[in-house]
Structures are given as C-alpha cells and as structure tokens.
Amino acid sequence: MDPALEAFLQQASGLLCRWLGEAGHGTPLPGLSVLPVVEPERHGLPSARLLADLQLVMEGAYNPNHPGALAHLDPPPLSASIVADLVCAGLNNNLLAEELSPSLSRLERALCGWMAQRLGLPDGAGGVAASGGSLSNLMALVTARRSRGLACRGDAVVVCSEEAHVSLNKAVAVMGLPAEALVQVRVDADGAVDPQALEACLARLERSGRPVIAVVATAGTTVRGALDPLEPMAELCRRHGHWLHVDGAIGAVFAFSERHQAGLASLGRADSITVNPQKLLGITKTSSLLLLADPLQLQQAFSTGLPYMEPSWGGGHQGEAGLQGSRPGEILKLWLGLRQLGLDGITSLIDAAVDRRVELERRLRAIGGLVLCGGPLHLIAFRPEGIDGPAAERWSAATRQRLLEEELMLSRPLYRGHHHLKAVLGNPHTGPEQLERLARVVQRSLLELAGA
Ligand SMILES: *Cc1c(COP(=O)(O)O)cnc(C)c1O
Q1: CATH of 350-451, one of 3.90.1150.170, 1.10.10.10, 3.40.50.300, 3.90.1150.10
Q2: 86-339 — its CATH code?
Q3: Which in 57, 242, 278, 409 has the greatest CB count within 10 A?
C-alpha cells in the first residue's frame, strides 16, 4: 500500500465531495474564474500544490448538480459512476485488445448484449462502447455502408429528418460524402418524421438510382425530444431493403419505463441503435453504446487484424469492433451505475424527469402567450407567440440572463428560424420550487415584452 497515494486520493475526494456538497449554492454557470498555471514547471509539484490548482479549476466548472441546471443533457453524476471512473483510471486498462483488458472486454461484450436485448434487438445482438453518440452514429453509418456494398459509391445518401442531430452531418463529411448526401425529410408539427414524406423521398431516390446507405430515425430530437415514428419507418426500410439506424442518444433509454416506452415498441426492428447513458442516467461522460442486431457486421467493417496482439479468446478484440483504437473501460461506470440504480431506479429517474416536464409545461401553458415545442420526453422549448426572429432572439437572451440571475440555467437553441428557451428536466435535484420560479421569471419577461 502506498500511503502517499492513499492520502492524495483522500484529499482529492474531499475536495470533490465539498464541491458536490455545495452544489445548491451559487449558480449552475459560474462567472470567470482564475485559471491556474498551465504549463509544467521544471520540477514536479507536490500534491498539496496540485490540489490547490485543481480547486481553482473546480471553482470555474459548470455545475450540473445545481437544482437550477436545466440547460442541457448533462445530468448530475451517479456516485457509483464517479467511483467507477476513478477505479477505471487506476486500472488503466485498454479496450483495444483482450490481453490489455481481460475482465473489462468481457464486461463490455456482456453488458452491450444485455442492453441490446432489453431494447428489443434479437438474440445475438451486441455492440461496443464509444466515446460519445457522434462516434456511435458514425460507426453505425460506416457499418451500414459496408454491409450494403456502397463503400465506393460517391452518390450514396443517408436519409434522416430535418431535425436530426448535427453529428450526422459530421459523419457524412468524415465518410467522404458531399453535404447533400444527407437527405433530410420533412417533419410534422410535432417535430417527427412524416412517414408519407419519407416514402416519397425513398421512391424519388430509387427512381433517380441513388443508393441509400441507411435511413436514420431519431428517437428523441435534441431541441424538443420528438420521437420519429419507428414502426412505419421500420416497415418502409423492410420493404425497400434499407438499413434502419435509430439515433436514440436521448430517447432509447425511455424503453426502460413502462409508462414512457410507447413510441419505442419497434426499437428492436432497427439494424443499429445509438444509446447515450450519459444524457439522462447520470453515467459520467462519455458513455455511449452502439448496438447492432448483428454485431459481426461491426467487425467486418472495422477489423484490420491486430498482428501485434495475442488472439482474442472471446468473440474478437473490442478494438476491432469499432473505429477507436486505444480506449478506456468506459463500460465500468455504466455497469456500476446501472447496478446502483437498479431497474426500478432507472424507471423512476425517467418517470420523474417526464413528470417535471409535464409540470413545467402545465405552468407555461397557464401563462399563455407562448409557443410550446415539446414531445413525450423530458425536454421542452418555448418562445413568445407572434414575434419575429430578431425579437425572439432579444427576448430569449434577456430572459436567459434574468433566469441565470435567479439561479436557473436554460439553453437558447435556434429552432425553426426563432430562438427558443429550452429546458431539459433530467436533473433529479430540480423540484417544484425551481419550476415555479422559472414560470414566474418567464411570465414577468413576457409582460415586459407586451408593455414594450
Ligand atoms: C447528443 C446527441 C448526439 C451526439 O452525442 P455526443 O455524445 O454528444 O457525441 C447524437 N444524437 C442526438 C439525438 C443527440 O442528442
């Protein structure tokens, strides 16, 4: 046992516990803080100095634990996830190859298999952990393209909705395709794909001879949490023989809740699914999984052979089942976090988040004069009725500032040509008090707009 290491860890965890414990004070978004010295000095520093410098960085950090932190999909971390992240760093294993992470590689394969089954994918389904949903989406599309024999077709397209996530634009760029290769289908008033528009789009592509890499359904759009209609989209994909990827970075976990899984019944018909446990479940970043009905396809897309490694004694090295080479055992914090929550804990986290959204929506509706853009999940965006783009930009900026002064942080997405205020209700520390205050500030800000 190394007493210096033990003392260092204890002091660091003391700092962290104090920081977390003071989460209710101050605001979610601190003002500018002092940045410690950036470059290493000639001689290494003792742990006391390192901790003092760490404290400075912590003082300037965004605070997801504050009950008013409602801006983004970045919830407070689960304690088991923090602990597993620390242990993971201590183990410093590498998911590249089995001999560098014997237990973690098995854990990742097993947990991906379990998650895939829970989401309805068939027996034998599985996948890999990835450092974020952007990477999961990219790997899904590369795999789909290879499975369709389209790797050399410069005219191939990816079809998604006009409200799909920007990571798809990046994926298309990385895949060497022009920006127009992302074909965006119209959505309905609720922000979900219109299946008729999709059908017409697929027919048009077929007539013009443009091959389709994949159709992407978004389960939970980023601004309002809309769910694309999975059942008709899966049916269209079956008829046309297209790969269906579900970007469930936000919404896939709602399949764990009996109350809120309605729109997700057909998740299991997907060829691939992106899930981001970091976005609602409190797994520390990054935590994303790419799950496939047939995980062998992932290996076929990315396997190169690892001539400098002993052969895998499982189903193949995890480093060959994806784009990343060396990577940490991110699965550890997901596994421990899910075990800490339990199935009931997962469900109640989801249900409570939706309840808070319903409650806020009720309060905002009662105020009147607002355009509300919501969905079935835990996100809602809004803006005043009857104002133009520049006025919406001014109102949202002024109101966001006023909310921050009241210790409430919302985000300000540009959506359908207007700036909105957006609340994400995934923070378990948020209670009726914050929601009431939020509605009060918005109401006051609306009255001033009417008076101006
Ligand atoms: C956040 C998000 C992503 C990207 O996930 P990252 O972990 O930020 O890379 C992809 N799709 C949707 C719908 C998202 O909300």
Answers
A1: 3.90.1150.170
A2: 3.40.640.10
A3: 278
